[in-house]
Amino acid sequence: MSVGDVSKRILLGRKLRSSQLGETLLPKRIALPVFASDALSSVAYAPDEVFIMLAIAGASTYVWSWKIGLAVALVMLTVVASYRQTVHAYPSGGGDYEVATVNLGRNAGVTVASALLVDYVLTVAVSISSASQYAAGAIPPLIGHEATVGVIAVALLTAMNLRGVRESGSFFAVPTYLFMVAILGMCAYGLLRLLAGDLPDAESANLEIVPQPGWEEPLTQVGLMFLLARAFSSGCAALTGVEAISNGVPAFRKPKSRNAATTLLMLGLIAISMMMSVIVLAKQMTIRYVDPHELDRLRTVGGGAVPEGYEQHPVISQIAAGVFDHFPPGFYFVVTVTGIILVLAANTAFNGFPVLGSILAQDGLAPRSLGSRGDRLAYSNGIVFLAALSMLLIWVFDAETTKLIQLYIVGVFVSFNLSQLGMIRHWTRHLRTERDPAVRRRMMRSRAINTFGLGMTAVVLVIVLITKFLAGAWITILAMGFFFLVMQAIGRHYARVELELAADEQDKVMPTRVHAIVLASKLHKPTLRALAFARATRPNVLEAIYVSIDAKATTRLLEEWDDRHLDIPLKVLHSPYREVVRPIVEYTQEIRRASPRGVVAVYIPEYVVGRWWEQLLHNQTALRLKGRLLFTPGVMVISVPYQLRSSQVAEERRRDEVRVHAGDLRRGRVASRDTNRQIDDE
């Protein structure tokens, strides 16, 4: 086993057979943390964004925070109810993309796919950036290095997901459940203290907020509505990740649709409970929270500026510090698991993006490499691609959540709207043919749910576009347009290639003649093997070609050729400029022009080596020549391998890897005879 294989085994684990795919399916207790961590983790930053937006006009507008929370909760319940219909109607895992493609057409499907791809990338970037901010708040030396911390976190998360969905889910389950316990426990204890009348104020309660320029005067009705709309659109970040379950239905155990729908309902109820509890406690504890880049708007009670180096802690941190003012371990537990869950929240995207990429690859809208599974049966190429894009965003935006959040949720609400419209058409189409009254009632109820969901998500999308377009949402729209055009171009390319490769009657026509050329650099074993193989194919014309760049070497080769009495003619191509590739290419083109209906077969002797560095020392001219000849019509390139001793050693190592060892059958590394017989029968 090579060093690379050993490293891969350590990082990813042993390879899994395709027949073991069923072993990677998830029960509900694992699927919930795998697919819900994104939506649940939004509790760590969605309330913060609501208070930041309301703080534009000062702390007096915080009275609207719980009403905005209720509006977000209503939208979330509507979306959850709508997607429960989707997972039953389309359990194949295509989610919004499949719904839009089947019911609204290919362009709508590509639009949804581009929106989801952008949203998945932003999910990773926002979650990891927020986690980096928490880490920097807890560990002062990390301040100023948040982007580096974020990139490292994405790399670690990528390695975990490359090990497989089930392994990464099992690893992430414990922190996700601890986060639920921490937040719900903190909120429950805080609400009990509120009812008892001893809930303390937050650490920022003694501060005042200076409104942004232009917002100092009392708000008009239009101004208030616009401000509330901005806060509502930021709070809707809590809805991101809800659609991931509809894309991940194939990862559930049977019955897949029912398990996915149950998990979706659990996600909605838990997320709403956590978010509303945090918003209510934040308001009751008189938290003051502004944009981290506008700390100069905070004033002390006397009107003075906050002390130099003042650190504004996130909303959950301030709540935990107040609720657990006499129990520090509770505070550290909440802050720690919150930071961890923000890292793991990106895992939702790492499960959704590769599956969507594989479906797009099957439909010819993405590179086909995204549709292949890796050693651990995960879509490795999609995971790596997502990680690369996320790292780039984190680095470019310096892991600043407030900047990234402005790019967020546009894509997901575009997919929400097209999905709801597609589901309405789905039920309408089936109602035309369905005659069973009970089934028709269920369909009409489902269509009503999706219609209400479309109305709600359409309103939210309009609000988001109006309030966030100039703040950065235009970047998301451009990115969606870019992905849309790229996928359309890939689709046209695959369609054009398939049409061009379609077999017809002319493909049966035999070439009039075959002119075989064997390249000879020396008269040694590889050359003699190539000559023998070329002769065995019985071409119409067979000759050897040598490119002369040195007169002495040419004379020596001609003498050896005559001494061996080879009955194959050797043609010497003189190259005054010491080029090797060009004379051969030009010679084959001349033969082709002389016989347009014939074929030129070029046999190239190549060395087969066993070590990577040996490849750098051999076959370089052959590689360049093949690269040129592949673009020449009517020219066939045939590699004639000659195995050096090092290649035999490498082959022995590979044979030893696949050799069956004691205990392999018990560990499931090889199939039993009965299993093999069953596979053969199938």
UniProtKB/TrEMBL annotation:
InterPro entries xrefs: AA/rel_permease1, APC_K+_Transporter
Membrane-spanning intervals of the chain: 63-83, 104-128, 134-159, 171-192, 222-242, 263-282, 331-356, 377-397, 403-427, 448-466, 472-491
Signal peptide location: none
Main location: membrane
Membrane topology, as annotated: Multi-pass membrane protein
Keyword annotations: Membrane, Transmembrane, Transmembrane helix
Pfam families associated with the record: AA_permease_2
Localisation per UniProt entry: Membrane
Top-level lineage group: Bacteria
PANTHER family cross-referenced by the UniProt entry: POTASSIUM TRANSPORTER KIMA
Name listed for the protein in its UniProt record: APC family permease
